[in-house]
Amino acid sequence: MKISIVIPVYNEFVTLPLVLQRVLDAPLPSGCQREVIIVDDGSTDGTSVLLEEYNANDVVIVHHSVVNFGKGAAVRVGIAKATGDIVLVQDGDLEYDPNDYPRILQPIVEGSADVVYGSRFITGVRGMKWANWQANKILTLTANILFAAHITDEATAYKAFRTDLLRNIRLRCLRFEFCPEVTAKVRRLGCRIHEVPVSYNPRGILEGKKIRWHDGIEALWTLVRYRFAPLQSFVTRPQTVSKWLAPYAAHVADLRP
Question: Distance between alpha carbon 103 and the CA centroid of its chain, in Å?
Fold first, then answer.
């Protein structure tokens, strides 16, 4: 199977070379190959110039956006360019460890899951600011109440999907609302979210962290709005929905408004 690793980046000049080296060297499940899709979301700190060095790499695809549209828009570009069987989202900083790839990807590779989240909270997380910890817990609780998600980490950056499933979901996110939007929609479509533990190294605003308090409000509103939006508005190919709903029919009835 081919793994499409989508990396949205914005002004990550300092950390990006090390991140990309880790991504390229990271282990994968047996029989898998990788492609790395880097979407430069209008960087102004030299990241765009730095990425020119990877144009000759056969494994790496680089896309430059003219302006900074947001992480969600960059992820959507990466999904559109993916040619792999599985899409894995990777941040362009050092908070997450690519050595966790095998445990994230293995459930999809072996066919036991369609969606996998790497949870920072299964084994406990250290160093996260209290405000960020509280926001994560509120968003996770909301997802569990509204969508019976049964997860521990809604806002994790490490999310992996079968590409054909993800491409059938109509995404509208621009900024950090990618996480709540995709969580809401995969659950409304009946897909169970499989979680595995991952390591996490929190960083602060001075180290380049870009999410702010108002992004948490937007994430909360995104979960609520997609709980009650029409189910048919979520998919790009309505005729294929039954393929995905069949294994989860008993749960979907409870998630329709």
Answer: 15
